[in-house]
């Protein structure tokens, strides 16, 4: 099978690693990829949906897996399917569950999916009036894509107003001036994944993400500074509630709305500490980064077989198995200064010293190779993932490697997996 993976991050590195392990894979190409991915796949430097579509039409892959939400939002999956190329990833309409918070909230209301109360605003004056009517903690969300940085968890009204000013006046994301202001729910988060095609779905494990930049969940939101899998709070009773009240209703809505959706649905869930009930905070329509890095280390079955079955509407016949005992922890190494200003082209000196193993792997996100040196070109740069029989051993392994990596500009949270 000829497989193309679209993307350049640690998420795509994790996907490529799983595909590379499959006996079904004859050829693996990643577009555009990165230095770490180049060790296991042929990397082709293309960046636009148009370039990728032309390349796929010419080379006729048996499967295309789209990693980043950007390409899904642009409708790349739709365009590929029109050329009879099997794709793992939803069409443009299905991707709106992630690309528009307002669309997501309307969808949840229509199909009775439990979520936090919210209102949508397209100007700063009405936003501030609403904030003044609801003092205390509150959440401000940018409506469009923001690479995981569009959610502001605000301690008070002043922080909420400041978030609104950043979006409406400073236009830190774009001139798409629409926000959602949402009630703050105290509780614990988890990420829950479901593979689905037009006819059926299968669950694809869980993780807990650490979104804030600083220890103790302080500072601004990021794309994620680490994960643990499976989510420690997920038990049989909670999972049943998630499936009955969120998963099944979401899939019913997708089918009723005739949304083209052959891919993965990522449910960001908050478990309300007052009621114990799960509430949907967001959909993502692709694998989470860094969630998939930790989840992938626990997968026992053939990922390529499952992904191809999704793309060809045969998911019901696929067998997906995770280890019953394996745990895993992912620690993100970022460039100092992320998620704000940070230097690029910094040098990581000793990555070649670390062997990639079945239970320990370093996934690359923002790396390239130049003149014999591994260099960085982004904020989140490496994902160190360890798997084992318990979280403590996994945690010890990832922090041991983090300490040994010789990179002057590295930063990582000290508390991933600390309090379980």
Characteristic terms for this protein:
single chain; 420 residues; alpha+beta; Rossmann fold; Dna Ligase, domain 1; D-amino Acid Aminotransferase, Chain A, domain 1; 4 domains; globular
Quick description:
This protein has 420 residues and is α+β, with helices and mostly antiparallel strands.
| N- and C-termini, Cα separation | 41 Å
Global geometry: globular
* Helical amount: 25-40%
Q: What name is given to the CATH topology of the largest domain?
A: D-amino Acid Aminotransferase, Chain A, domain 1
Topology:
Elements: E1 2-7, H1 10-20, E2 27-32, E3 42-43, H2 49-59, E4 63-66, H3 69-73, H4 76-82, E5 87-88, H5 92-99, H6 101-110, E6 118-121, H7 124-133, E7 138-142, E8 151-154, H8 157-168, E9 179-183, E10 187-196, E11 201-209, E12 212-214, E13 218-221, E14 226-229, H9 236-256, E15 263-272, E16 278-284, H10 291-296, H11 303-311, E17 327-335, E18 347-348, E19 360-364, E20 367-370, E21 373-376, E22 380-388, H12 391-404, E23 410-411
Parallel strand pairs: 1-2, 1-4, 2-3, 4-5
Antiparallel strand pairs: 6-9, 7-8, 7-9, 10-11, 10-15, 11-14, 12-13, 14-17, 15-16, 17-22, 17-23, 18-21, 19-22, 20-21
């Amino acid at each position: 099978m000829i497989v193309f993976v679209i993307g350049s991050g640690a998420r795509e590195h994790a996907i490529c690693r799983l595909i590379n392990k499959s006996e079904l894979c004859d050829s693996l190409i990643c577009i555009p990829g990165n230095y770490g991915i180049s060790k296991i796949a042929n990397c082709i430097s293309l960046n636009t949906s148009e370039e990728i579509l032309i390349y796929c039409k010419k080379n006729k892959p048996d499967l295309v897996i789209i990693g980043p939400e950007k390409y899904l939002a642009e409708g790349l999956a739709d365009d590929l399917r029109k050329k009879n190329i099997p794709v793992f990833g939803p069409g443009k309409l299905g991707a709106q569950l992630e690309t528009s918070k307002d669309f997501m909230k309307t969808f949840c209301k229509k199909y009775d999916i439990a979520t936090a109360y919210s209102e949508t605003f397209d100007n700063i004056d009405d936003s501030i009036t609403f904030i003044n009517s609801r003092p205390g903690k509150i959440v401000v969300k940018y409506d469009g894509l923001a690479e995981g940085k569009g959610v502001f968890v605000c301690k008070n009204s002043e922080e909420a107003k400041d978030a609104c000013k950043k979006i409406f006046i400073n236009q830190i994301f774009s001139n798409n001036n629409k926000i959602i202001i949402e009630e703050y729910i105290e509780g614990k988060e988890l990420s829950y994944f479901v593979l689905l095609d037009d006819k059926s779905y299968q669950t694809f494990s869980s993780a807990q993400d650490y979104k804030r930049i600083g220890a103790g969940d302080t500072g601004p939101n990021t794309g994620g500074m680490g994960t643990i899998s499976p989510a420690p709070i997920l038990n049989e009773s909670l999972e049943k509630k998630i499936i009955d009240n969120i998963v099944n209703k979401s899939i019913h809505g997708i089918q009723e709305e005739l949304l083209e959706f052959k891919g993965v649905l990522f449910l960001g869930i908050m478990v309300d500490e007052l009621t114990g009930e799960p509430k949907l905070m967001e959909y993502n329509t692709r694998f989470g980064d860094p969630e998939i890095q930790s989840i992938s280390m626990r997968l026992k079955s053939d990922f390529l077989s499952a992904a191809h079955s999704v793309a060809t509407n045969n998911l019901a016949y696929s067998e997906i198995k995770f280890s019953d005992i394996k745990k895993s922890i992912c620690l993100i190494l970022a460039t100092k200064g992320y998620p704000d200003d940070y230097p690029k082209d910094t040098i990581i000196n000793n990555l070649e010293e670390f062997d990639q193993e079945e239970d320990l792997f370093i996934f690359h996100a923002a790396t390239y190779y130049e003149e014999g040196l591994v260099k960085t070109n982004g904020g989140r740069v490496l994902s160190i993932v360890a798997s084992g029989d318990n979280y403590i051993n996994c945690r010890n392994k990832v922090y041991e490697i983090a300490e040994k990596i010789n990179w002057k500009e590295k930063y990582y949270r000290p508390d991933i997996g600390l309090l379980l």
